[in-house]
Predict the 3D structure of the following.
Amino acid sequence: MSDRPNVLLIVTDHWSADLFGIAGHPSIQTPGLDELAQCDVRFRNAYSECPVCIPARRTLMTGQTPRTHGDRIFDDTLTFPKVTTLARAFRDAGYQADAVGKLHVTPQRDRIGFDSVILDDEGRSQWGTLDDYDIYLGDIGHPGRQFDHGMSNNQYHYRPWHLPEHTHPTAWAARSMARTIKRRDPTRPAFWYLGFRHPHPPLVPPQAYLDLYRDIEIDQPHMGGWIDDPGSLPFAISALYQRTSQYNPAQIQAARRAFYALCTQIDHQIRYLIGTLRMEGILDDTILCFMSDHGDMLGDHHMLAKRVFYQKSANIPMILVPAKGDARVATGRVDDRLVGIQDVMPTLLDLCGIPIPETVEGMSMVGEKRRPWLYGECSEGDHATRMVRDGRYKLIYYGTGNASQLFDIDGDPHEMVDLAGDPRHAGTLERLQDILVSQLYGEDLAWVRDGRLAGLPDKRFTWAPYRSLNSQRGDGWPTSPKVDIPQIEWHRNTA
């Protein structure tokens, strides 16, 4: 047996920091995570430095900010940085390292330092790879059937899962990780990464989980006063506003119900994994970390999805359960320091006594070290949005339109009142804008004149029909070969 702790890192997609019963949410059911809170520390002010899938995961696996790892837009052609990854650091320290589920790297089968990857890339066979979840469905008699439900990967219509519950990607990912745990090398510690694709759309929870919410009143979206005049919104926000306008209030409420059902399913599967660790006799010797790559607006302020720095999109869950008896982490509490996804890698390495690579920019959450502010960046061009969050306030900036918003997160956690135009907060606004200017680079420098934010002229966004129904998936079976391969090669002259 190893005398070093195992690590189980669980990453979901689109899960906001407030979506826990223990956080006071009025509707969601997360009994497992709520109970686990007695044994963990929950970081209340955790943020995704770039709230979109691929950049966030590059930050997670490198400990680097988007400025350094090179993606702040969702570049699905960008190969992974040639640095010591989280998995490689564990392997170099003698750990076995295995990944299950959504990894979201290019090329798809790049193991980025893991010994093995059991992949669920949401059926993106157009990128050249048939992932393991697709192979599983084929093996059990459902080849190419994962999108028979007809729900889009980026829209908010819903229906129940169309196949038996055990075939759902959440159940498959948890079961695959349980098998990975049981197949471990008992002479070495293990680093396990589990990436759940949900609650990211398509919103297709099993019927049993929808039924759990049948008699529960679903909370209404928060609508700040600043959203009342759509014509005054900067380009980037106007684009999200008009997209959400395609859904009526009843559809938004139905989407929230289905979304919460997907969260509860994940919660139950985490309970199953904790039970597996317990039955294997290694629960007390395992560090648990639960987080998300970003959140989802879910109708708040008349927006859906991510790519913005409002709380529902950028504020993420960050829950850390140390190995039993590790006095370095005080459990059963909420920690209010500013942390980011960049901090996960140095934290887990620190807890395991593994040197942190020099390429890592994040800081360990072990101990009491704090940063005075956190910078975030997402998208480029007209859709670019930037953030500076300090201990109490948050600045959100849009270059196209030169629009600043200022929120008192401590006093106004749902961002109902924009303080940017309030003379009483002019000093705070100027201070955070100065920090923002100091962090800009590349094309963002065009927003600055004489050391001050000037931005670019605003534009008007006009929504247009999208023939692909926002990345609708269909029948991808069988897949076509990427190249012609000769059926017979033995006749070739090899002399």
In short: Confidence is low (pLDDT under 50) at residues 489-495. The radius of gyration is 23 Å. The first strand starts at residue 6 and ends at 12.
